């Protein structure tokens, strides 16, 4: 692809989003949907963050590789992301694992998911490819990362978080020299290397990679032919480039988008029940760590046509109220008290019920006199009248999933079992 003068790098790039993961640490929340399709923040889904970053960065060509239980993800893409127009050179392709290369092969690894679609990426006629994970919450301008990639002449540029050295053992960690060139890539090391000049911190991989397409294409073809490879970026391709090519680290802090309210770069892997609950509840803070109200960097999603939220009844003990909470459209808070909670679209809470530190996914119904504390309620669950959750850990654990951090996950199947026993 020949670049025109003054052409933004993002217009010569495509985003390839890896969205096939189950996210098994989210337990029953991913029984019916892939992790990138899990709801987040009141009206969005997790994948909307990576896609919105790409769109807001100026990228208009995207591909989403899906595999595990992809139906709700694909439906969300069709409903919420159908505004790309081919006549404007905009493309959003959904690439399910469809045995295109071999009738016995699904996507074998993250690199294989791209390799099986080389012909489709070729058809986009792009110069750069940004590989993204579809399951993290953050705001980032990829144009800045692309500029660094071109400036340094790197074979691969890897997005990196600055994390305290003591916590870095949970990540893939980069050892870098003073010029940010990566000298080694270590998966979950016991003694993580620190950043030159910053002994307290280490650089952890975000799973974001920028390549020249011609370089990556050649690499993928070689990797496909290697039977000993696990066909994975983190396990195979990146270590090979670190060893024999030029891999450069890009600090997330350099391209993180903030509105001025956030006091530090915000990135979250909401991959466990505790992390998922915490990140949603954090949004109810007086000054949240992630500003969703920044209209200059909107998080695009499927915007349902729904009526506004409504609060009814005003008598002692039966007052429809919400304090330090996010309440989405089409919610009716009827004579119930909602505190430090997040209600997704279409929730109903009935008289004399209380919700405290609750994340309720869409279309949840909380019946009268229910008392719910510190829980996540899956989509469409109907909470029975008088149910008390979050006060007796042993009783909670009998019927529902109670996390290490004391968050209770409630799903339809769990409630069915509870109702059969009661």
From TrEMBL:
Q: Where is this site: Could play a key role in the communication between the regulatory and the substrate sites?
A: 67, 106
Q: Would you indicate the residue range of the signal peptide?
A: none
Reactions listed under catalytic activity: alpha-D-glucose 1-phosphate + ATP + H(+) = ADP-alpha-D-glucose + diphosphate
Q: Does the keyword Nucleotide-binding apply?
A: yes
> What's the Enzyme Commission number for this chain?
2.7.7.27
The family database entries (Pfam families) matched by this protein are listed as:
Hexapep_GlmU, NTP_transferase
- Does the record bear ATP-binding in its keywords? yes
Q: How does it assemble?
A: Homotetramer.
Question: What is its biological role?
Answer: Involved in the biosynthesis of ADP-glucose, a building block required for the elongation reactions to produce glycogen. Catalyzes the reaction between ATP and alpha-D-glucose 1-phosphate (G1P) to produce pyrophosphate and ADP-Glc.
Protein's name in the database: Glucose-1-phosphate adenylyltransferase
Recorded source organism is Tabrizicola oligotrophica
């Amino acid at each position: 692809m020949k670049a025109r003068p003054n052409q933004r790098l993002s217009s010569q790039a495509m985003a390839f989003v890896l969205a096939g993961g189950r996210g098994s640490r989210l337990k029953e929340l991913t029984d019916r949907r892939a992790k990138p399709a899990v709801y987040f923040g009141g009206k969005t889904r997790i994948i909307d963050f990576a896609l919105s970053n790409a769109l807001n960065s100026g990228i208009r060509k995207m591909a989403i590789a899906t595999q595990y239980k992809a139906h709700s993800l694909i439906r969300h893409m069709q409903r919420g992301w159908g505004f790309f127009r081919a006549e404007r050179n905009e493309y959003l392709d959904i690439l399910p694992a469809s045995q295109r290369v071999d009738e016995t092969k699904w996507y074998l690894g993250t690199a294989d998911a791209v390799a099986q679609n080389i012909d489709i990426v070729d058809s986009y006629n792009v110069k750069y490819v940004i590989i993204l994970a579809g399951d993290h919450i953050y705001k980032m301008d990829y144009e800045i990362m692309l500029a660094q990639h071109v400036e340094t002449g790197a074979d691969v540029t890897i997005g990196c978080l600055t994390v305290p050295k003591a916590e870095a053992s949970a990540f893939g960690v980069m050892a870098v020299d003073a010029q940010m060139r990566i000298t080694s890539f270590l998966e979950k090391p016991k003694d993580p290397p620190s950043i030159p000049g910053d002994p307290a911190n280490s650089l952890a991989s975000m799973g974001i990679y920028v390549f020249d397409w011609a370089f990556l294409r050649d690499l993928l073809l070689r990797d496909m032919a290697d039977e000993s490879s696990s066909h994975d970026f983190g396990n195979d391709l990146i270590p090979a480039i670190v060893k024999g090519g030029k891999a450069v680290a890009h600090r997330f802090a350099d391209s993180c988008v903030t509105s001025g309210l956030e006091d530090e770069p915000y990135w979250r892997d909401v991959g466990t029940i505790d992390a998922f609950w915490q990140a949603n509840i954090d949004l109810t803070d007086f000054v949240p760590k992630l500003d969703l109200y920044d209209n200059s960097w909107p998080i695009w999603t499927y915007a349902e046509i729904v009526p506004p939220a409504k609060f009814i009844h005003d008598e002692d003990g039966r007052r429809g109220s919400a304090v330090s909470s996010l309440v989405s459209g089409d919610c009716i808070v009827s004579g119930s008290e909602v505190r430090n909670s997040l209600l997704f679209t279409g929730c109903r809470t009935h008289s004399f019920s209380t919700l405290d530190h609750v994340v309720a996914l869409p279309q949840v119904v909380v019946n009268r006199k229910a008392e719910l504390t510190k829980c996540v309620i899956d989509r469409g669950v109907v909470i029975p009248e008088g149910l008390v959750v979050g006060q007796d850990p042993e009783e909670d654990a009998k019927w529902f999933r109670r996390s290490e951090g004391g968050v209770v996950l409630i799903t339809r199947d769990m409630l069915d079992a509870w109702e059969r026993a009661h």
